Amino acid sequence: GLEPRAPPGGPALRPGASIPYRAMVLRRMVISRSLGGAGPAPSGSDGGSIPRGSTPAWSDLVHRSRSIEGVMLHWVELGPSNDRTALVLLHGMNDSHVTWKHVAPALARDRRVLMPDLPGHGRSDRPDASYELAWHARIIARWLERLEFGPVDVVGHSFGGGVAQMLLLEPGLCVRRLALAASGGLGTELGFVLRLATIPYAVELLGQPFMALETRLALARTGYSKRDIRETCALDTQPRSARAFGRTVRDIANWRGQRRLFYQRAHEVQQPPPIAVFWGERDRMIPAKHARELAKWTDGVVVKTFPDCSHYLHHDQPDLFALELRDFLDQHDVPRARFRMEALGSP
Questions:
Q1: Is the dihedral of CA 40, 46, 52, 56 positive or negative?
Q2: How many of the other CB atoms lie within 10 Å of CB of 20?
Q3: Residue 87: count of CB within 10 angstroms of its CB
Q4: What's the pLDDT tens digit per position in 194-226?
Q5: Which of 98, 120, 167, 257 is least crowded, fewest Cβ atoms below 10 Å from its Cβ?
Q6: Residue pair 105/43 in contact by the 8 Å Cβ criterion
Q7: Per-residue pLDDT tens for 162-197?
Q8: What Å distances lie between residue 307 and 27, 84, 279, 281, CA to CA?
């Protein structure tokens, strides 16, 4: 049969893509056209429902760093400083700000986008610290307070999603909207490689020579290009990376799976923001059913699944991911999420 073709400026309908994925892309094209666009536009191009204007290039990044509680935190910024709510993108374990390179330009057309390297990752310090989930959240919260941005939108991928959840518990920090992409902390199941890394002190004491190999295995068969994998491996092999990774994963998981779960502390959140969850149906690291489980005890949560995507959905389908995320961030009058504690039992 004839292969369907996407119109100019639309996402590619690659051969072998599943029928559900194709239907989702075509549906997004129709929605985009009804809004006056021409379908999702690739990063760096003009079109789709992404507002028209100058799209910043990844090479336009501004690198910054600042000491936060004794930790030198590195981050990059992209996009104009204006009255739009700033957007903060939090990466996962053994990753860095580089993970957002294919979606940040589209997101930064009309707002400031900030992408920190979490402590122990990227170009940030790797101190002799606990690397507990709450510690990561406190560092990011203090960093945002120092920047004085006011309310922010937060997106967290994988472990970064767990950090984003904990930001809701930080006093004085206002999260306007929260988006979780293949997030940790929403269920116990976890991929074998990460469960293996929880063996006490194995990674911390012996893992440094294998950090590049672990990163390559994690990113195999994902949307990462060979160049992106090389760049990520170079950052992950910096001294003391294994110590940071070992302590981080040991805090959130054990050989059975994840043990730091958001529902354990959801009752402490005073006023949850609107929440959206994005997940790849082919995720072998953290199953997509965690998104549906969140919806069972959270009223108003937006759940979007991507049929042909892995754990790294923002690399597998960056244009579609950016489009769906912008839709959530830019909608007016989105209701706040409400946690139904009766569905969880007593906290």
A1: positive
A2: 13
A3: 26
A4: 898 888 788 888 888 888 888 888 887 777 888
A5: 257
A6: yes
A7: 999 999 999 989 999 999 999 999 999 999 988 988
A8: 14, 32, 9, 5
Residue 269: C-alpha distances to residues 111, 181, 233 (Å): 27, 20, 36
| 173-199: burial string, b at 16+ Cβ within 10 Å, e else | bebbbbbbbbbbbbbeebbeebbebbe
Both tokens assigned to 91 = 């990466």
Q: Alpha carbon of 297 to those of 84, 141, 202, 276: distances in Å?
A: 31, 26, 36, 14
pTM of the model: 0.84
Quick check: helix, strand or coil at residue 18? Answer: coil
Both tokens of residue 227? 């160049």
Q: From the CA atom positions of the chain, what is the Rg in Å?
A: 19
CA 174/CA 186 separation, integer angstroms: 22
> H helices of the chain, where?
19-34, 104-107, 133-147, 159-167, 192-196, 202-206, 211-219, 226-236, 241-252, 289-297, 313-316, 318-330
Helix pair angle (318-330, 19-34), 10° resolution:
50
